[in-house]
Structure formats: structure tokens, C-alpha cells
Amino acid sequence: MASAQSYDTIGATYTVTRRTEPRIAARVWAALGDAQTVVNVGAGTGSYEPPGRDVTAVEPSALMRAQRPAGTAPCVAAVAESLPFEDQSFDAAMAFATVHHWQDPIAGLREMQRVARRVVVFTCETTDQSWRRRFWLTRDYLPEVAASRVGLATELASAIGARMEPVLIPWDCADGFFEAYWRRPEAYLDDDVRRGISVWAKVGPDAEQRAVRSLRDDLASGRWGERNRDLLDLDAAALGLRLLVT
Ligand SMILES: C[S@@+](CC[C@H](N)C(=O)[O-])C[C@H]1O[C@@H](n2cnc3c(N)ncnc32)[C@H](O)[C@@H]1O
Q1: 243 phi and psi, to 5 degrees?
Q2: Which of 101, 103, 121 to mutate to test the pocket of ligand 1 (most atoms within 8 A of CB)?
Q3: From 24-28, 31-35, 124-128, the region with the lowest mean pLDDT
């Protein structure tokens, strides 16, 4: 449970910047179709749990479970790779921004297929074209992240026979995940923003300080603006986020 343990360390301030982005939630909820019973795996604090359906959450980190607001779905302490449910006991299983933390993502997705008739997963494609070299934060400031994960969404989709739909990130995305501030670079200078993004803990304090210093310098000198002028007119960006739907 390496990642679950890490959320017991890094998850303390999750809700400061992490919350439901309604335009992306609408895509997830549409993909759930007419499912009435839904299990949300790696549920965290409950963002993206659909209203008006019978939701069961699964979350291994006690710290994350403790931050679930009153009135959210009942939450079971378990990991994706071993779901404590009978075969086909839900209409749908969903997982949002969590599979890259799982010890064995394919085993977790197969468990979701075992317990539910439909699977909906929000994750990222990490090929050269779609993400690693296109997002300025990884390309210009965090090369160690660009080198670390390759091809996640495609590999997972083919393992469970899912179709893949691209998801654009609105410029003012309400959920502060890694790519969310692509048009608001100053946000990454903010400690609270970085504490809500696990990548920064993963690269460690030396790389974090180097990247922040370098970004701050480039913003002050105008270099960031010169390099990324083409982004400033966009309302939404394609940075490799994907919905996998079976
Ligand atoms: C970035 S958070 C996403 C939480 C929530 N889905 C959201 O969108 O806000 C990732 C979550 O995955 C959980 N997690 C880590 N390893 C897991 C595993 N093997 N099975 C299920 N969840 C896991 C973490 O504890 C954490 O709560």
C-alpha cells in the first residue's frame, strides 16, 4: 500500500485546492450512463461522486477518509487491487485521478470490471506527443517527471478493452491537479497549490525548489511568456487527460 501510505502523509491539506471541476464532472457522470449503483475507487475526499445515485466509496488512506465531508457516500477502507465486493455487485465502477498511484493498476482495473458492469476511469496519457513534452511544466522545469511515466492511459485502456475519450482542461479548472494551472503559471509558486499535487512530493525537495526558482525567474524576466505565448489565447488545453469507458 505504498501510495495509500503516501496519502496518509501528503494528503493533509488536500481539500485546500482539490475539489470537483464541474465541466469534467459532467463528462464522468455522462459516461456512467444510467448506472444507479456506483463504486468510486480511490475516492479520496469524494470529489466527482455523482449526485442522485447510490454511491459506495473505496479509499485506503485514513487521512483522506477523515476529510470526507459529512453526508458524502459511505466509505470502505480497501485498495483497488482487492475490492471487498461480490462479482457484478454495482452498475458502474469509477476511478478519478488515482490509477497512477496504484501498486498494480491493471489488477485494480480488472477488479473494477469484476465488481461492476461498466468502468469509467479518468487518467492521463503520458506519451511524448500527448503529455510529457507538451506541458511546459514537465518540459521546461521538471524533466524528471517527463522521464518517469510513459503511456499509462493507452496501456490501461487496452488491458480492459475501454474506449478512450480526450478531456480538455479548462483554463480556470477548479480542481488543482497537476496540469490544472497550465494558463496560470504563478499558481505553481504557491506552496498550498503544490501540496495538493503528489508529483511534487514524488520528485523531492531539491527538484521542487529548483523548478520553483527557475519558474519564478522566467516569469519575472518574461521568458515564460515568450515561450508559451500560444497558450494565452486558449480557453482549454489538450494535455493528455483521458476518460476510459467500457
Ligand atoms: C489524487 S487522489 C484522488 C482522490 C479522488 N479520486 C479525487 O479525485 O479527488 C488519489 C487517491 O488514490 C488513493 N489510492 C492510492 N493507492 C490506492 C490503491 N491501491 N487503491 C485505491 N486507492 C488508492 C489515495 O489514497 C488517494 O486518496
Answers
A1: -105, 125
A2: 101
A3: 124-128
SS3 94: strand
CB within 8 A of 68, min separation 6: which ones?
Answer: 43, 45, 46, 57, 59, 75
DSSP letter, residue 195: H
pLDDT at 44 over 50: yes
Q: What is the pLDDT of residue 129?
A: 62
- In which band, very low, low, confident or very high, does the pLDDT at 1 lie, cut at 50, 70 and 90? very low
Pick the residue whose CA is nearest to atom 17 on ligand 1.
102
**How many alpha carbons fall within 13 Å on the CB side of residue 116?**
31
Is the predicted pLDDT of residue 130 greater than 60, yes or no?
no
- Do 210 and 127 form a contact (C-beta atoms < 8 A)? no
Ligand 1 pocket by C-beta < 6 Å: which residues? Answer: 3-4, 7, 18, 41-45, 47-48, 59-61, 64, 79-81, 96-98, 101-103
pLDDT tops 90 at residue 5: no
Flag the least confident range among 49-58, 82-91, 131-140, 221-230.
Answer: 131-140
C-alpha 219/C-alpha 25 separation (Å) is 32
| Neighbouring-strand partners of residue 54 | 37
Could you give the CA distance from residue 22 to residue 173 in angstroms, rounded to a whole number? 9
For residues 136-168, b (16+ Cβ closer than 10 Å) or e, as one string? bbbbbbbeebbeebeebbbebbeebebebeebb
